[in-house]
Amino acid sequence: MDLIDDGPPPGNQPEYTVSELSGAVKRVIEAEFGLVRVRGEVGRVSRPASGHLYFALKDDRASLDAVSWKGQVAKMQVRPEEGMEVIATGRMTTFPGQSKYQLIVEDVAPAGAGALMAMLEKRRAALGAEGLFDPARKKPIPFLPGVIGVVTSPSGAVIRDILHRLRDRFPRHVLIWPVAVQGEKCAAEVAAAIRGFNDIAPGGPVPRPDVIIVARGGGSLEDLWGFNEEIVVRAAAASVIPLISAVGHETDTTLIDFAADLRAPTPTAAAELAVPVRLELVAAVDGLAARQSRALATAMERRRLRLSDLARGLPRLEALTGSAAQRLDMAAGRLSGALGLMVARKRGAFDARAGRMRPDLLLGLVARRRDALAARGEALSARLARRVELAHLGLDKWASRLAPALYRLLADAARKGAEGKTRLETLGQRLDAAPGRRLAELSRRLESVDRTRLTLGHAATLKRGFAVVRAGGHVVTRRAEAEGASALEIEFADGRLAVQRDGAAGPGTAKRPKDKGDGGQGRLF
What we know:
The chain has 525 residues and is α/β, with parallel strands linked by helices. It has 13 helices and 14 strands.
């Protein structure tokens, strides 16, 4: 007869439910650690809308979760900030919902700078001693830049906030240089982006930015650490283009903020600092025009009043012309008698001279004048003949020089014509070859753009191991949408796979084996 082995027989150990065991552990920990003081560096700090404060205390070997309730936070004189080394006083307890222990903090006292903060301060002092943070190095931000270069992640909310703010204030041409804003690649990519914008040649096919914005949203000290790296600080300090730093929120400070030409508290504020408000400029211009019109009208009115005041100070026209009119009347009264007297005197003088004139004297005067006229005519003829002779001599001399000069002019014209013909042939050859060279250059640029398209397209992303999940023809990005779908279509690099809710695969695919229970990794549905 075969015996069936049902396992070891039950012992005397009591059976606990999960809640009972969690409560027992909670009572043991709270009884053992009633009130403790813990020293450590503050890690990630979270402040949800409830008003409670969640953070972590850590050292080089361990980390302890801590929480301070809303009422306790209000009584704290020192709020824990990331990177601070503090001494926290509180009670140890457990959180059964996640099977973890935590410290309920009642008070926090500073205990010195943390390791990261000490490293950051040391690096800031060293770079500052080199003069990289000197205010004299900072360049003014253009009042209205034509092109704005933005160094940030292309998929985050930061770039959307910047573009939205620029569109509202004053639309500008924006160049985006995509980079990783946290992680080990962050510092190298941000420094390369700053140098890349500075290396763009003015007047080239890609416009050179007039100002650069380095932007990132808020995060922990570890998340923002890439912007504290020396390579990023040196690239920002060496930038010829004015640079605006907008890393983190208003309370976050990184070393790039000290090296930048201007620090903005948020990425949205960086967009506001980069461009003015177009409507405000229009209103200001209209206001200045109105002020100019009012000033012109006021000036004209003041000049009119001044002219009127000066006119009242002048004497009347009758007073100025009265004396002159009286003198004119007196002179006119004496003029008639003086005119008759003058005529009588002239007539007497004429009669005296007429009595001395005789015919023979007149004939003699005519003869003398005739002889003088004949002598002058002979002298004029001789001088005219001499002038004509001299003119002939000059004409002959110029005629002898004209032929060689004409020959030289014809030779120069022939030589210039030959040179122009040669140059025209050269330009014609260059013109014939130019379309081919231009077409080859455009072909190379088209191939480069196509390679970039293939590299950045989703097909290349699928080849790196990613997949696209669709439901009802739409891309699924959340777990809830996938759980609510009756069928899914998963696109891989080598094709698509249809998955039904009952686990059946689509045409041309293998069936998924049926799950056995809820163990392991669980099921998709």
